[in-house]
Amino acid sequence: MSLARALALTLVLTVRLDAQVTAIKAGRLIDTEGGTVLTNQIVLVRNGTIEAVGPSVTVPGDATVIDLSGMTVLPGLIDSHTHLADAPQGGEPRTITFKTAAANAYEAIPNAQKVLLAGFTTVRDVGVYRALTDLAMRDAIARGAFPGPRMFVAGAYVTITGGAGGMTGMAPDVQLPWDMHYGEANSPWEVRQRIRMLAGQGVDLIKVLATGAVLTHGSNKNAREFTYEELQAAVDEAKNFGLKVAAHAHGAEGIKNAVKAGVASIEHGTYLDDEGIRLMKEHGTFLVPTLDVHSCIVANPGTPADFLQHNQGMQETHFNGFRKAVQSGVKIAFGTDVPVCPMGDNGKEFAFMVQNGMTPMQAIQAATMGGAELIGVTKLVGSIKVGKSADIIAVRGDPLKDVRALEQVSFVMKEGKVYKKE
């Protein structure tokens, strides 16, 4: 068989596979838009899109039937705070410098599959140390090079020199390559320049570091890093390109500066105070809490001693602020900060959210409709509705009774293709 004919046959087979119709029998289906549970539903999928949902949907004779009648069916989950593309090993960012950018990128490929098989069909990847590797991963997944979630990426950390998003802890005479300081900016005009560069590369969002960090050498987690004027410049310039800004912020003053400047989300929000909560409600700012990170930092034997010291005393303050935010009605989007916690363990965050004030349904909505609203893709994902992408997962048991059921996902479909079926 000639190469041309083989390629033509492959194309025909691919088209035929894509054109197949799938009918999913759902015993219990969580309606994330309505906050209810529907029973004995049929979800009809054609060409990767949900065509019909209901108890009396007619199933075509040529449809592939997937029986999930003994399971709870949900829309694909959304993790709004990940770092899949160049994850440092053992909690130490400087390990990124031990290998080439290509080696780090190849080693990150399994991260995508682990997160997808955990039920997360969409992620917002909020920064890489090796600039633009996340764009390469996003595009490779989109063209089918390897399995992974749908990615929305930031391209690089926009940070002050030596700041929370920098590769710190190196000797002062070590010259870092261009991609490890691509996002450095130290004035409003430099912030604008960096955002213009990133927008030109095709990023989906901008990530700024408004305060110090826990997992950065020489950092003060409470310190304000970008000024209010710099944050305003970031939001204004990003808006010019239709981009939202996510702000890493631990300290209370840095949180409030970022919210006043108009960022779309506060990442972590550890020292969120009452005024910060009021401002977040007033501005409609999302909180992406990443509650599980504290236990993972302590559990990781490779965590450097100064990172452990930074983390001391943070957990309860973080949990208390989150409880107040939930009670006050602040918008919440689910986020994990993997690989601080292991890739694929994303679902463990749900239990922390429920233990600290959310109902299981609220936590699920934060990982579906909440993430979709924050990213700006509610017409595409976040619920199992006609016209949306067929991103569908299923778990055994009832996550509304025990949210830990979401830690063991049994079925994963993304864009109509099944990646996991136990």
**Gap between N and C termini:** 37 Å
Strand order of the largest sheet: 3-2-1-4-14-15-16
Radius of gyration, in angstroms, nearest whole number? 22 Å
Oligomer: single chain
Total DSSP helices: 12
> In the CATH hierarchy, what is the superfamily of the largest domain?
Metal-dependent hydrolases
- Give average pLDDT, whole number: 94
- CATH architectural group of the largest domain: Alpha-Beta Barrel
Q: Which secondary-structure class do the elements indicate?
A: alpha/beta
User: Given this structure, which CATH class of the largest domain is correct?
Assistant: Alpha Beta
Strand content: 15-25%
CATH fold-level label of the largest domain: TIM Barrel
N-to-C series of helices and strands: HEEEEEHEHEEHEHEHEHEHHHEHHEEE
Shape type: globular
Provide the low-confidence segments as ranges: 1-18
Helix content bin:
25-40%
What's the short story on this structure?
The chain is of the alpha/beta class and 422 residues long.
Describe the model:
The longest helix is centred in the N-terminal third of the chain and has 17 residues. This protein is globular. With 422 residues, it is an alpha/beta fold. The protein is 34% helix and 22% strand. The N terminus is likely disordered. The protein starts with a helix and ends with a strand. β6, α3 and β7 form a beta-alpha-beta unit. The strands form 3 sheets. It has a 7-stranded mixed sheet, with no helix packed on it. Strands 8-9-10-11-12-13 form a 6-stranded parallel sheet, with helices on both faces. A 3-stranded parallel sheet has the order 5-6-7. It has 2 domains: 111 residues, Urease, subunit C, domain 1, CATH 2.30.40; 299 residues, TIM Barrel, CATH 3.20.20. It contains 12 helices and 16 strands.
